[in-house]
Amino acid sequence: MDALTPQDRREKQSAYVLMTAAYNEEAHIERTLQSVISQTVRPERWVIVSDNSADRTDEIVESYANRYDFIRFLRVSKTAGHSFHSKVVALHKGASLLEGVAYDFIGNIDADLSVEPFYFEQLLNHFQQDPCLGLAAGFVYEDDGHGFSSHWSNSVNDVGHAAQLVRRECYEALDGYAVLKYGGEDWYAQTCARMKGWRVEAIPDLKIFHHRHTGGGNHPLKNAFRLGKMDYSFGSDPIFEVIKCLRRFREKPYVIASMIRLAGFAWPYIVGEARAVPEEFKTFLRGQQRSRVSTLVGADRWIVAKERSKTA
User: Fold this and answer.
1) Is residue 1 part of a domain?
2) Which runs of consecutive H residues, i.e. helices, occur in the chain?
3) What is the model's pLDDT at position 146?
4) How many whole angstroms separate alpha carbon 64 and alpha carbon 258?
5) pLDDT of residue 3
6) CB-hemisphere CA count at 13 Å for 301?
């Protein structure tokens, strides 16, 4: 480990700010607070928005905001209950507390996770090494009962919203995080970034420890139907969607969820629901997906051949 002091690191690195939307996170948010406070390079400002929490979330965050001047707390009121766009609405309201702060990168960190002390310093290093990198994050790790392991959905080409940074120029070109009915602001942001010529990358060596399983706050089958509607709303290619869901039929726990996701994808066609994205976004996304179809089919053939060789 180098001998740089915290002040040296701040002068060496570009400045960044963070935003967090928290809804009833008393069980996890203190771990997140400690994680950011322990960073070798802290954010210039961290805005934490309580999205009408009804537990001790506000009390916990306010106690830290009173002790650390880079933390700002805001409580917003809304109709009781959870919606998939309320998180981004809360972040938009919290963004006003970033006014007057100089920064080169802006990011999100969810209120139910922790990261290693060098997480944001190393993430900034990746940005400094690649001026075309617009959006980046680490890989999500979840506890499967035997310790933390990499989540099955991790991919270097898919940057989740959990603990990410966005180069300021890229963020402004995206006009911030989009408010979307079915969620998926991370998918929308990275696709838009690529459309505008920025590179997007998830970095396997940077670990994000998620302390509540993905989708754990929602009924899994209801969530699968919502994901299908989200895919439709983004203009996902039907052939790609079918192949993506069918590939998961090999994994027995996901068969029913995959069928329901396909049903969720088909339902908006039946009722004639309007899509949430511009036509150019749909065209770009489908172009990317169609280029991946042959890769997915090739991978399936390889898996089938491998299974046959085992039984031969």
Assistant:
1) no
2) 6-12, 29-37, 57-65, 86-94, 119-129, 168-174, 185-195, 220-233, 238-247, 255-271, 279-311
3) 80
4) 42
5) 44
6) 6
Which residue type sits at 312? A
Distance between CA atoms of 78 and 101, rounded to whole angstroms?
27
Give the DSSP H or E segment for 177.
none
Tokens of 298: 């090739």
Q: At 310, phi and psi to the nearest 5?
A: -70, -30
Instruction: Return the residue matching tokens 């172009």.
Output: 287
Backbone angles phi, psi at 6, to 5 degrees: -55, -40
Q: How many domains does the chain have?
A: 2
Q: Which residues of the chain have pLDDT under 50?
A: 1-4, 9-12, 216, 299-312
Q: In the beta sheet, which residues pair with residue 143? A: 148
Q: Residue 289 belongs to what domain range?
A: 220-311
Q: Is the dihedral of CA 29, 33, 34, 38 positive or negative?
A: positive
Q: Do 201 and 290 belong to one domain?
A: no
Query: Identity (one letter) of the amino acid at 212?
Result: R
Helix (H, G, I), strand (E, B) or coil at 145: coil
**Residues 144 and 23 grouped into a single domain:** yes
User: Does the residue 75 lie in any domain?
Assistant: yes
Q: How would you classify residue 165: left for phi > 0, otherwise alpha for psi between -120 and 50, otherwise beta?
A: beta
First to last CA, the chain: 52
